[in-house]
């Protein structure tokens, strides 16, 4: 019998997982375990599986977040907002979610392959498990989910990759392009992701027993959601184009309706599963919308009924500010704890938010005022989709409890006019700050309890995304958003309007996409707004090959005086998005030199 002081097990068991899973991590690190000890008992096998949750990368790490698509801008060369608009993808690989450093398993590349190996090792030893059929299903379902999850995350960013279903011993030269179930290239890999996720959804529970204790574990709905996303991506034009037999054998960049039908069916099934289990799942109402992004209650997690998947972590308060959020999204160290490395939203991205009446924002409205209850207000900030102010702070917003309109005094008011102390004292190129993950009152001046207790979470998948996947896929599959799929009791059009109207009553759209002029344009804009700063924008502009139209685009900020009398846009730089280079991430150079079947993505050679 092989002995397991596992190559990963001993290391990860020494780490704290989450509060919900600590009961499974009580095996002593120094324990000398045999195969049967680790894989023969359900309790120990689940402890082995728990290591895989530790490999889920955090989308916001140090000076990196997931605004790869140009949502933000920064002057700091290692910040995402600096590199995204300049197309400097190599910098994405040195820190953050896309990190491939060999000594950092929290990055997607290195951590992902290690997790896949661990999942395959578990599946290879599943025959040793002595447990009930239900327990066996749960173990197998989690292993299949993780194998598919990490393949899908890397596939969507890097393009075709090998799909590893067993532990490699001798033949490490796995080709990027291969055939599977009649598909090649991107879609061949996607087929295996979909297959594993579909099976995982059959094996995993709708909700785990003792949900609070097991908070953060993947469920049947998590797997079904990733099945839907994998189908949606595989049916998108960019992914269809790269579904040939090599980088040079490219197909027509068009929607694959077959995959869109499958995406609509999977998403429709998930929506009904959530509706039929309201005690565990559901869209949050507008009043509690932010509960899935942050909390200020010590014993509460930001994980909500709407959350389907995320990296659960317990970093909170000052540690969260000093080591994570303050290093990328917060201003003014003395008041808010920021360290002058800010990714702030560009004017281009702010322009995507509609007006309250559903019309599009136009730059001619910059500085335009209107009267509301006898008070003069600015259209560009106060007459917008309610999600704008819920996710973004603007000039004179109060980010806490202590407020003083005098900029010479210490307060939690943000002075973001040109030359304002908040904008002038930090690396802040635009008059906006990301509010989505930053609770009001989490600062050094206000209630110390809020500052000490705050925690945030970036959902990797939530129920609102599934509604939008359903709407997009139904429209693309059937050229009619008024259709239903997957046994769902709502149409694609109704799905997107549920999400819109949840946002404090944003007006419904129609089958022509309302003011956007097409349903596709509307749904992509809706994703940019509803899922802002959650990491989807980069994938969406790539999926539909919109990035090339952005090459040379003026990335703008907005300048204005303290009295709000004069407003003018200023170009900070011209965006770089080269075709086909910037449609895929670069692979590690050494890997591409090992054997010819693993070629570098075009433009990164």
Could you describe the 3D structure shown?
There is one protein chain. By secondary structure, the protein is mostly helical. The protein has 23 helices and 16 strands. The strands form 8 sheets. The chain has a two-stranded antiparallel sheet. Helix 3 packs parallel to helix 7, helix 18 runs antiparallel to helix 19 and helix 18 runs antiparallel to helix 20. The longest helix has 26 residues. It starts with a strand and ends in a 13-residue tail after the last helix. The relative contact order is 0.12. The N terminus is likely disordered.
Characteristics:
globular, 23 helices, two-stranded antiparallel ribbon, mainly alpha, 605 residues, 36% helix, disordered N terminus
Helix content: 25-40%
Mean pLDDT: 92
Question: Which strand-content bin applies to the residues?
Answer: 5-15%
What is the tally of helical segments? 23
Largest beta sheet: what is the strand line-up?
A: 1-2
* Major pleated sheet: 2 strands, antiparallel
Distance between the termini: 45 Å
Uncertain runs: 1-30
Over all CA atoms, what is the radius of gyration? 24 Å
Instruction: Tally the beta strands.
Output: 16
**What class do helices, strands and sheet pairing give?**
mainly alpha
Shape: globular
Outline:
The protein has helices at residues 9-13, 35-39, 42-53, 80-84, 89-92, 108-124, 133-158, 185-203, 220-234, 237-241, 257-275, 317-323, 347-350, 379-382, 386-391, 421-425, 448-453, 463-478, 492-502, 519-530, 537-543, 547-550, 589-592, and strands at residues 3-4, 33-34, 72-73, 179-180, 183-184, 294-295, 307-310, 344-345, 369-372, 375-378, 392-393, 433-434, 455-456, 459-462, 554-560, 567-574.
